[in-house]
Amino acid sequence: MTRESTLPDAWRGPENLRKYYARCAARRPNDPHWAHGVEICERWLEFQQGQDAAQSDVDQLIRRLQAESKPGSMWSVMTDQIEAWAKQRGFRV
């Protein structure tokens, strides 16, 4: 069983993760970590809703994920999902 298969539905996909990060950002407005999570999820959501993605777009998302100074467990969940999404579409991760 993978970690992905044991996730609650509320932690699956860019829209649900965006909502999570937005709630946290509202509670912690002075911590940019949460706003960064919202931004990454919004970009990922654009791709899932049909905006064309190039390898350079995927590379940029991965770099932003890797650049986070205090990622935490939900950041790992988001990273795993974005990497799986990219691999399923034939991108290098």
Brief synopsis:
This protein has 93 residues and is mainly α. The chain has helices at residues 13-27, 32-48, 55-67, 72-88.
Reported for the largest beta sheet, the result is: none
> Can you write the helix and strand succession as a string?
HHHH
What gyration radius follows from the Cα positions, in whole Å? 13 Å
According to DSSP, the number of beta strands is: 0
In terms of DSSP E residues, the strand content is under 5%
Count of DSSP H/I helices: 4
Structural class, judged by helices and strands?
Answer: mainly alpha
Question: What does the overall shape look like?
Answer: globular
The helix fraction, in percent, is: 55-70%
Average pLDDT works out at: 90
Keywords:
4 helices, 67% helix, globular, mainly alpha
What does this structure look like?
The protein has about 90 residues and is mainly alpha-helical. α1 runs antiparallel to α2. The longest helix is centred in the middle third of the chain and has 17 residues. The two termini are about 20 Å apart. About 15% of the residues are buried. The model has no long low-confidence stretch (mean pLDDT about 90).
